[in-house]
Known about the structure:
Blueprint (H helix, E strand, L loop, with lengths): L6 H25 L22 E6 L3 H17 L3 E7 L2 H11 L4 E4 L5 H11 L1 E7 L5 H9 L4 E6 L3 H9 L1 H9 L3 E4 L2 H9 L7 E3 L11 H15 L6 E7 L4 H14 L4 E6 L5 H10 L4 E3 L11 E3 L6 H6 L3 E4 L12 H5 L4 E3 L7 H10 L2 E3 L3 H13 L1 H17 L3 H12 L6
Parallel strand pairs: 1-2, 1-4, 2-3, 4-5, 5-6, 6-7, 8-9, 8-12, 9-11, 10-11, 12-13, 13-14
Helix pairs in contact: 2-3, 4-5, 5-7, 10-15
Amino acid sequence: MRIRLNRFSYSVLLYLLTPFILLRLIVRSIKAPAYAARWAERFGLVSRMQNKSQTIWVHAVSVGETIAAIPLIKQLQLRYPHHRLLVTNMTPTGSDRVVATFGDSVSHCYAPYDMPDAVARFLKRTNPKMLVIMETELWPNTIAACEKRQIPVILANARLSEKSALGYRRVLGLTSPMLGRLTKVAAQHSDDGARFIALGLPQANLTITGNIKFDLDITAQMMADAEALLKAWRGDSQRKILLVASTHRGEDEIILRAFGEIKHRHPSALLVLVPRHPERFNDVADQAQAAGFVVARHSVREDCLSADVVIGDTMGELMTFYGACDVAFVGGSLVTNGGHNMIEPAAWGKPVLSGPYLFNFAEVSSLLLSSGGMLISRDAQELATTVVELFDHEARLQEMGDQALSVAEANRGALDKLLHIVEQALPAPKR
């Protein structure tokens, strides 16, 4: 069913919903106190930038998009040394990742809510010459305000699932004009591109670049950190390590049941369990203890050699964790969240396991499944059986990891294509 909604009525609705948006921030701040801070930034009240500065604005909604944007931001710093990089997020976890990665080498704040006055204040104070939006964070008023000020807007690493496309189609009167204002959509796959075209994006404004997440860089420091972590987890033994990353509510119970079965065949096995959201760290640790496991917390560097389960309760270390495991399960896929980034374990040459809900990474999962580098587990019993089989057969484990790595290596190159789009669209600096 289509909803008659244009940008004016959308803006009115957004203003009416503002009290409820703020209430949601308050509720979230109970478990994640950072949500109670820096509200002014969300309404465009950010520090003024010098008018003479040439600012490139990169928006990454949360931590996943921020990690994907890191190679892009580093290249922009190298290629445009006289430009200021402004990176915005909507979540504290994304904000923390920007600060941890770039320090004060980039400017950083929360992006404004998509209200005309908040967006206008933000643009007046920051004066960007280009906006690069990671993935599918589409805000009609922000995009319209940029077009009015002749600020090019690039939707980078764009993806659009069938489910999301259906939602946008219901408000086509809002969606189609918004997409028509985008300078360029750099889509991950032709299927994503076709959905954008069907919703109103001009064909000339579409380029298929592939997935920038394949262009991640595993540095020598990351390898050394992973080796040290493996030593802390394994010691001098040959205990097997299952990493379960980015779990959502409803998944941890399944994982812990599966691990109980795994322990029957591999009593020394270690589970490293990393919840997606920091506010769930304590709850998941309590669940693991209630299930009868000896639990250690990574954040306090407790002794892991005698633990059954390590809770990965820090931010920004997941890539290192992938380098220190034998098998990786990527969460958000046993519930209808749609999955998370399975390219990261593949880039380390690790066998990738997942649940059946993968619509957020449909193309990547298809590549990994067809290569044999990834397997689907639909429930606790299937997951336990798969992990035990891999732990029992080292050659099969290695073969599967090699197949995953081959997919990761073969699909690099999206970053160069995206940088070319940026170069074409970025206005030349004034002399």
